[in-house]
Amino acid sequence: MNSYRHFRLETDDQGLVWIWMDHADSNANVLSSAVLDELERVVAALEADPPAGVVIASAKASGFCAGADIREFTRITNRDQALALMRRAHALFRRIESLACPTLARIHGFCLGGGLELALACSYRIALDDDRTRLGLPEVRLGIHPGFGGSVRLIRTIGAPAAFDLMLSGRTVAARQARRLGLADHAVAEWVLDRACRQVLQRRPPRRCPPLWLRALDSAPLRPPLAAWLRRQVRRHADPRHYPAPYALIDLWRRHGASDAMFAAEAKSVADLIRTDTARNLVRVFFLRERIKGFGRGDADFTQVHVVGAGTMGGDIAAWAVVQGLKAGLQDRGPQYLTAAVQRTARLIDKRFHRCHQRIAARDRLLPDPKGLEVPRAEVVIEAVVEKLETKQAVFRELEARADAGALLATNTSSIPLEGIAAVLERPGRLVGLHFFNPVAKMPLVEVVSGRDTDPAVAARAAAFARRIDKLPLPVKSAPGFLVNRCLLPYLLEAVRLLEEGVPAPVIDRAATDFGMPMGPIELADTVGLDICLAVAEELAQALGAEVPALLRRKVEAGKLGVKSAEGFYRYKGRTPLKPKAGAGPLPAAEIQDRLILRLVNECVAVLREQVVEDADLVDAGMVFGTGFAPFRGGPLHYARQRGFAAVRRRLEALAEKYGPRFAPDPGWELLQE
Ligand code: NAD
């Protein structure tokens, strides 16, 4: 019976067949074509000789199944190929659903996408109730929607509202929540998991289905108003021109309901979506994320970090480390400087943890430590004090003397060259930059900065630390503004210039969000704080030869600092800008977009030429994860590639003629191959 590469089959003394998924070439189960081939054979054997029941389980520690093999998506060249893949999975899952015996998915760890679709084809689902189990259908994040019959089965299993909530957001849920939704029949502790599987298959309780009122929402008269409401909800987050998949999914359901006809329509819809630029670019971003994660693959045996400077950044870095399960010492000039950070940490903990014992344990992990007594126990020491060279040098002189000899010494500086800080160290090679972004809890990227002297092993360990606290580490060279601030700055300055020329702020922001940026540059500047923007601008302007617009300086001098002072370029009510309606401006939107975006792209080319970042893909990754640069465009350089490098360069030349040399194409364009 065991002639499979990716599966192991066992029959227990009750006549139940346990199918253990164990992908031979990967440490996570994925439904590649080879796996589907074998699963077809497994199912054929079960059809020929039906057992008392079937448990589908995973032998991998990582989880049940991470979904379809996304690498195979990139090899799909035409619609027929895509359609064949979907139809094949449909047929296979339908056979599983129609087996003569009951079937059960035993779920632990990741159960995502195609993996959950497989589980939904089983009669029952039992999920392990621990911190790691996550169930979800994140396909929209790749520009498609569930394509293995999951959309229909999820609606049938938990009702349309909850199903759309999961499928349109792509979010995942833990075992208990899955049980509450009806997605899992039970959420149980590890020691009863196998026993629970056996019992359910023996007793064969009726399959779960949503209550009558929920099923009624699937009826023809009620679908159109609910679909219209769903479209309005999605519109608030995703423009249909950029992200067609959620709208396609809502439409499928509006037309067919969770009927058998929706299966066929689902397959066709995914076959169409999978080849769109949006899907290809989002898949690209998925692999960029994997690549960047790879930089942090080293040993991650960290238990304690120490942060010096409990301000905006230091306080939040310590809080984040605590939430990620590390102990964090937090030091400042005196206890009074720690209070605000301790309170912020408590709020983050309450948001992240819902069980009382977890909250208490997490609070205990934050160690307010005004005297720095914890320094010798920390494996990583992060300095986040004011941006002054002498202060940082004084801090590191003391830290080097007290920290463990093997501890990482890291600075969160945004602009001071690492070499200057390292000059006071006995072993300058120990110093590395860990440049976090504000707000720490929301921004996934951390630039791992190597100075002239930084030991490569130290940089690698810093990247492993960033991974350990669930951040994406991007290796960069110590150069003014590193990658992200440097490339974002020309974009922000151009926005202020447009303002000075009389283009209304909402028109500028609208042009940027229409391009696909998560927030317009004017609102972004207000959110970051105009004083911080000005400081970065002044610092970088020198190095990059840029001009700081007078309007920015005037605002800061007038104390209009943005969200934090309730007025910057906009006025604010809480955190919400009071935007006048964006009417037509003096410039066409396309011109505004080119002025904003192409200055950013041009700076990316300069960064690449100077080898601040290793290659073009990593520039794109940094900008997508560090600034939210329109992910469906695949990153700024990829955007330029798709538009045509030569065409973008010509456009920059035209802009330079019209507006001045700040648009002059960087010499690095010469090196880019179409
Ligand atoms: P902040 O002014 O909010 O905090 C600085 C903290 O350092 C204050 O609490 C201050 O009391 C403390 N401090 C000053 N001297 C000290 C000393 N000798 N010992 C111990 N603590 C001392 O500043 P911030 O915005 O958190 O920035 C800190 C660092 O992070 C800077 O290097 C900055 O460039 C960098 N950074 C800031 C941002 C941002 O958006 N604010 C983003 C990335 C990096």
Keywords:
single chain, 674 residues, alpha/beta, Rossmann fold, N-(1-d-carboxylethyl)-l-norvaline Dehydrogenase, domain 2, eight-stranded mixed β-sheet, six-stranded mixed β-sheet, 28 helices, 20 strands, 49% helix, 12% strand, lipid metabolism, NAD+ binding, Enoyl-CoA_hydra/iso, EC 4.2.1.17, multifunctional enzyme
Question: What does this 3D model show about the protein?
Answer:
One of its GO terms (molecular function) is long-chain (3S)-3-hydroxyacyl-CoA dehydrogenase (NAD+) activity. Pathway: Lipid metabolism; fatty acid beta-oxidation. It comes from Methylomarinovum caldicuralii. The protein has 28 helices and 20 strands. With 674 residues, it is of the alpha/beta class. It has 3 domains: 269 residues, 2-enoyl-CoA Hydratase, Chain A, domain 1 (Alpha-Beta Complex), CATH 3.90.226.10; 181 residues, Rossmann fold (3-Layer(aba) Sandwich), CATH 3.40.50.720; 156 residues, Orthogonal Bundle (N-(1-d-carboxylethyl)-l-norvaline Dehydrogenase, domain 2), CATH 1.10.1040.50. The strands form 4 sheets. It has an 8-stranded mixed β-sheet, with helices on both faces. Strand 11, helix 14 and strand 12 form a beta-alpha-beta unit. The mean pLDDT is 95. Bound molecules: nicotinamide-adenine-dinucleotide. Nicotinamide-adenine-dinucleotide binds next to helix 14 and helix 17.
